[in-house]
Design goal:
Helices cover about 70% and strands about 0% of the residues. With about 325 residues, it is an all-alpha fold.
Length: about 325
C-alpha cells in the first residue's frame, strides 16, 4: 500500500475518524485539535506522491506551452503575419496560455495519480537521495502518530477532570504517589500560593493542575492515569495495552533520542531484526499498522470520555 493510499484509507468519508461524533461540549476543543493534528498527518503521508504528481503536471504544462508556441508560430507563417526579413513572432500571454490549455490533455497522463504512484516507485528504486528523503518522512510520520495519541490523551483527561472535579479529580488526586509531588503540591496538601494562582477556585482547573503530575508520555503511564481517574475499563485496556502501541512508543523514543539508530535494547523489546548500529527502516505496512493503532486508541479514548461525560451530565 502506497503512502497516499494509507492517507486515503484513514481520511476518507468512510473512515472511522470521519464518523467520530463528540456530543460533550467539554471535549469539543480537544476533538478540534485532534482533527487538525490528523489532517497534518494525512497531508504528510500524501505529500511525496503529490509532489511527484505536481512534477508530472508541471512537465506536461511546459510541453504544452512549447507546442503552443510552435502552433501559434505555424499559424502566423501560414497567415503571413510577420514583416519583411526573418519571421519574428510575438504572442500575447493570453493567447499562449489559451493555446497551451487546449493542448494540455495531450501531455497529462489520463490517470495522473496512477502515473505519480508509478513514478514514485521508480524513483525509490533508482534514486538513493529519494529513498533517504522518504525514509525521513516515514520516521517523522511515526513520531507524529505517537504525538497525536499522547497529546489527545492528555487533553481529553484534562477536559474531563476539569468538568468533573469531584468525581474524577478526587480519585486522581488520591492516586498521586509521593514521588509525584512538587513544591507546593503533594497528595495531601496544596499550598495557598498555588490555589491563589487560580483565584482560590480549583473547580474548573483541577485537571489542568493535576495533569503535570501524571505521565502521558508512555502507554503504561496513560493507562495508569486513566485508571486512576475512571477505574478499570475494557475500552481503555483494549486501546492502550496493545503491543503495537508499546512498539510505537519505543520506536518514537528511538527516533527522537537516538536519531533512529537501532540498539540492543530496542531489538530486544520490539523484536526488531535489524542490526544494532543501523538506521531504522520503516516499511509501508508497519507504518499503516502504527497509524491505525494510534488513531484507534485515540478514538476509543474520545468515545469513552464522551460517554462518561454524557452519562454523568449535571454531576461535578
Amino acid at each position: 500500500m502506497s503512502l497516499r493510499a494509507i492517507s486515503q484509507k484513514y481520511s476518507g468519508d468512510s473512515s472511522e475518524l470521519a464518523h467520530l461524533h463528540i456530543d460533550s461540549t467539554e471535549l469539543q476543543e480537544s476533538h478540534r485539535i485532534f482533527i487538525a493534528h490528523s489532517k497534518k498527518l494525512f497531508g504528510l503521508l500524501a505529500m511525496p506522491e503529490e509532489m511527484v504528481g505536481w512534477g508530472l503536471a508541471v512537465a506536461a504544462w511546459r510541453s504544452a506551452r512549447h507546442h503552443a508556441e510552435l502552433s501559434l508560430a505555424t499559424k502566423a507563417v501560414k497567415d503571413k503575419k510577420y514583416g519583411e526579413g526573418l519571421p519574428s513572432f510575438s504572442f500575447s500571454k493570453e493567447d499562449l496560455e489559451k493555446e497551451a490549455s487546449a493542448l494540455m490533455h495531450n501531455f497529462v497522463p489520463s490517470d495522473l495519480n496512477g502515473a505519480a504512484t508509478s513514478q514514485f516507485s521508480e524513483l525509490l528504486d533508482k534514486v538513493e537521495d529519494w529513498r533517504h528523503a522518504v525514509k525521513l518522512i516515514k520516521q517523522t510520520l511515526l513520531v507524529h502518530a505517537w504525538t497525536g495519541l499522547e497529546s489527545s490523551a492528555k487533553n481529553i483527561w484534562i477536559a474531563a477532570v476539569n468538568s468533573r472535579p469531584m468525581a474524577l479529580g478526587h480519585k486522581s488526586f488520591s492516586s498521586l504517589q509521593d514521588d509525584q509531588r512538587e513544591a507546593g503540591f503533594t497528595s495531601k496538601m496544596i499550598q495557598v500560593g498555588l490555589i491563589a494562582k487560580y483565584g482560590f477556585d480549583l473547580r474548573q482547573s483541577l485537571g489542568t493542575i493535576l495533569s503535570e503530575r501524571f505521565d502521558f508520555t508512555s502507554v503504561d503511564g496513560i493507562n495508569r492515569t486513566y485508571q486512576g481517574a475512571f477505574g478499570m475499563d475494557s475500552i481503555l485496556s483494549q486501546g492502550l495495552l496493545e503491543g503495537t502501541l508499546v512498539k510505537l512508543e519505543k520506536t518514537r523514543n528511538l527516533l527522537v533520542h537516538r536519531a533512529g539508530i537501532v540498539d540492543d535494547t530496542y531489538k530486544r523489546t520490539t523484536q526488531c531484526d535489524q542490526e544494532s548500529g543501523t538506521e531504522l527502516d520503516v516499511s509501508d505496512a508497519d507504518l499503516d499498522i502504527f497509524i491505525s493503532a494510534s488513531l484507534k486508541a485515540t478514538i476509543n479514548l474520545f468515545k469513552f470520555a464522551d460517554n462518561y461525560l454524557a452519562s454523568s451530565n449535571g454531576e461535578q
